Automatic annotation (TrEMBL):
It comes from Rheinheimera tangshanensis. InterPro entries: Creatinase/aminopeptidase-like, Pept_M24. Keywords: Aminopeptidase, Hydrolase, Protease, Signal. Residues 215-417 form the Peptidase M24 domain. It holds the Pfam family Peptidase_M24. This is Aminopeptidase P family protein.
Length: 451
């Protein structure tokens, strides 16, 4: 792990401009053409290798950590469990008919991986049953379970975590019906295992994650340039669609429609406003913002960056805006300094708010985990619409080797705008190694410029 982290650090640390010289890990990108993108066929072997590594090494640790003897993932076609696609080999597009996965922890700590499916997967699973009808399938599942006689059987039911609530009511009842009556008390929520499985990153994933994030950031660099924007002509919607179509051309699916908005003097932006964002034709002197996210090789990104459209007589960003971006970087540092293994998301939020107030920064923090999905399970560190403790996900502690979208904003008055506020909204994908936060593809410490 140390070797990988060192490599990531060497990749992302770069020289930053005068107003951001104190801020580490700044990195500028220019084009997605600088980064390779694998064809869909070539992605399969990599994704399956990483899956097997996770099942071999990570899952046994997590089942022991969460004290589960067995884990059942049962779902049907068009009603797939949210965790299902993180567990099955590619190419898999659906749960064929009814698909059952059984993970049974053995005495030596290893985990037996079985499928009880009409259509077997093959590696990395062993088929305990295949073919036959649905009644036989359920009977086969009951036999697999009773032969191993587990005391704590995890099932995916949860009131608090959507990703851990994938077992439908109908399938839950069928499971109860097929098992001996005394097994009902052995069925427990697998929510802790599901969250840990979803949030934990491995060395192989960390090898590729910087490349994925670089692709995400590089398309933003293209979008916030004269290659895409003609001041007085191009609209914010035009730029949003460029971003989406550019990713699609690269074979990189977005997980939400990209957002592009603008700010300028005279448009509403109050110190306590949740968001300062307007739409329309982009003019010289405008501040631009985008929020985009892609998924590639099963890992997702979430990125927000800022751009500026130079006026005819300008060669660089006004000093007030440079200082505002630097304040945004300062807020990021205040937040990431609070990352400590075992500290809850609510504790990180409270400490960040306290430090920002001490520094006189008007800030809002709403950071979340990243991984197999963009809004991944793990510790919630504030919400955009409230800066108070989250009684559910905010209580989850930070673990080492997890990834986050370092997300939030600051507001600052700009002298060149007659004291009007600008909102700097930043979001960068990062990795917490248990000791420090490392931006996976650097972070924005300089403005994107449209000349």
């Amino acid at each position: 792990m140390k070797t990988i982290v060192t490599a990531v650090l060497l990749t992302v640390i770069a020289i930053t401009p005068t107003f951001a010289a104190e801020f580490s890990q700044g990195r500028q990108l220019s084009s997605a053409d600088d980064f390779a993108v694998l064809a869909p066929r070539d992605r399969v072997a990599i994704e399956n290798r990483i899956l097997t590594e996770r099942l071999d090494a990570l899952l046994p640790e997590l089942m022991a950590e969460t004290k589960l003897d067995m884990w059942l993932v049962i779902n049907r076609e068009y009603a797939e469990d949210p965790v299902y696609f993180t567990l099955v080999p590619q190419p898999t597009f659906a749960a064929r008919r009814t698909t059952m996965l059984v993970f049974s922890r053995k005495a030596d700590g290893s985990v037996e991986r079985l499928s009880v499916n009409r259509y077997p997967f093959g590696a990395p699973y062993t088929a305990a049953w295949s073919g036959g009808d649905l009644t036989e399938q359920w009977q086969a599942l009951a036999k697999v379970i009773t032969e191993r006689d587990p005391q704590r059987i995890g099932i995916n039911v949860s009131a608090d975590w959507p990703v851990a609530d994938g077992l439908t009511k109908g399938l839950h009842q069928l499971l109860l019906d097929v098992l001996p009556k005394h097994y009902a008390s052995r069925l427990v929520s697998a929510e802790s295992l599901v969250v840990r499985w979803m949030e934990q990153r491995t060395e192989s994933e960390l090898d590729i994650y910087p490349h994925i994030v670089s692709l995400a950031r590089a398309v933003i660099a293209e979008a916030f340039s004269a290659k895409v924007i003609t001041p007085g002509v191009t609209t914010t919607e035009d730029v949003a669609w460029y971003i989406r179509q550019r990713y699609e051309a690269l074979g990189l699916p977005v997980w939400f429609m990209p957002d592009v908005n603008l700010q300028r003097p005279g448009l509403p932006c109050e110190a306590q406003a949740a968001s300062c964002a307007s739409q329309g034709v982009i003019q010289r002197g405008d501040v631009l913002h985008t929020d985009v996210g892609i998924c590639y090789l099963k890992l997702c990104t979430d990125t927000q960056e800022m751009g500026y459209v130079l006026k005819v007589n300008e060669q660089e960003v006004p000093a007030g805006l440079k200082k505002a971006l630097a304040t945004g970087n300062q807020w990021q540092d205040s937040l990431t300094r609070q990352f400590k293994t075992g500290r809850t998301g609510n504790e990180v939020l409270a400490n960040t708010i306290k430090e920002s107030k001490k520094q006189g920064i008007i800030s809002s923090t709403y950071t979340h985990p990243l991984g197999f999905v963009g809004h991944a399970p793990g510790p919630t560190i504030g919400m955009w619409d409230h800066q108070t403790p989250d009684l559910e996900h905010g209580q989850w502690p930070l673990y080492a080797n997890t990834a986050y979208a370092i997300e939030g904003n600051i507001k600052q008055q700009v002298p060149e705008w007659d004291g009007h506020y600008v909102q700097i909204k930043l979001e960068q994908s990062a990795y917490f190694d248990g000791k420090e936060v490392i931006y996976l593809a650097g972070r924005q410490t300089q403005w994107h410029l449209v000349r």
